[in-house]
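Hi everyone,

Forwarding the result from last night's run.
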Amino acid sequence: MLVRRLIARLLDWLLVLVVAWPLVHEPVLVVLCAAVYDALLLRLNTLGKALTGLRVVGPASGLNLRRVLARTLITTALPGAGAVLVLTGLGWREPALMAGLGWQQPWVVIGGHVSGGSAGWLSSLLLVGGFVLLVLSVVEALDLRGTRTWHDRKAGTAVVRLKVAQSQR
């Protein structure tokens, strides 16, 4: 079940990346697109879950907005923020959105007013913070008990395998 869930998540992220990146060229917006994709399709089924035969279910009352947002925050927004911080800490910058808004990114301002050696602490801090978020996301996803991981227990959801229709009798 864990491998299926991982494959489903990777397929969903890949789909969002392929569709959103050419349109926005901004990692933060790609993460936002992934969160919106996940939240909007959670009640139905994401493409990755459909291809791997999985479905997110809630209690008998269904998946309300609070459950959907809690699960999306933990499963999509936190690891996405971690990936953005790691990329930023490694020196990768795609300032399309912020430059378009006329806003200077913090590392540009700090680097311009502080000597080059002092600005290195900021990239290290971003890199470590991103790795911490990614590690926490992996650890919570590996905390699988039956059909529920930590984020499922917190959001009141579970991931189940869809029944395959028996064509032979």
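Residues 116-142 form the longest helix (27 residues).

Cheers,
N.
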